[in-house]
Amino acid sequence: MQFDIRRFDIYRKVPKDLTQPTLTGACISVSSVLFILYLFLSELSLFLTHEVISELTVEDPVRHTEKIPVFINITLPQLKCEYVGIDIQDDMGRHEVGFQDDTQKIEVNEGKGCRMESHFVINKVPGNFHVSTHSSRTQPDNPDMTHLIHKVRFGMDLQEGKEVKGSFNPLEDVDRSAGQALATHDYIVKVVPSVYEDTSRNIIYPYQYTYSYR
Ligand SMILES: *[C@@H]1O[C@H](CO)[C@@H](O)[C@H](O)[C@H]1NC(C)=O
Questions:
Q1: Where does the UniProt annotation place the signal sequence (predicted)?
Q2: Does ligand 1 have an atom closer than 6 angstroms to the CB of 105?
Q3: pTM above threshold 0.85
Q4: CA-closest residue to ligand 1 atom 13
Q5: Looking at the DSSP assignment, which residues form a beta bridge with residue 70?
Q6: pLDDT of 73-106, one tens digit each?
Q7: Domain that holds residue 203
Q8: Does the beta carbon of 198 lie inside 6 Å of ligand 1?
């Protein structure tokens, strides 16, 4: 007898004129097609969503630099620009009063207030920087340090408007403009280096931080 591979066919064809559509069959077919479609679309959308993967390392990934660039953008609505300055102090003996390089002051609130944008670098040691009136030759009678923070950033900037989970700018929109006028405001900030790599393998080194206020 001649060998015929068709004998192994599990899905044997029934002649067309012997098949008959049924209502149950139609129900099963329609619901399985819908189910397949749902599975396909949900898996596809899961596949297409971006996911941020976090990894912790012990080593400092940003070893190539000993200093951390800082950017601060803050509005003091009740303090004139002539009084506003930045003081930087750290455990390595740095004490700079009224840091001025790379600082822009823009009058707001009809000249009664000031928005300050400043870039500076800090050492990787404990220290502090503060916005104060210390650098001004004449001191205002009642320095009003109420403020609104737009940005405090350490390290390289993530692109503006990028939605990345993490603590790259947690001080954004912190509003202390309704507080007591003569109060001082302290933020205790813990800064950790981060490596951020996007899907096109661009690597940048921002820092993340947390803060507490007192
Ligand atoms: C600082 O913040 C103000 C108010 O949000 C904004 O208009 C300005 O563009 C910011 N400056 C920089 C350099 O990001």
A1: none
A2: no
A3: no
A4: 117
A5: 120, 154
A6: 999 999 999 999 999 999 989 898 888 888 999 9
A7: 67-213
A8: no
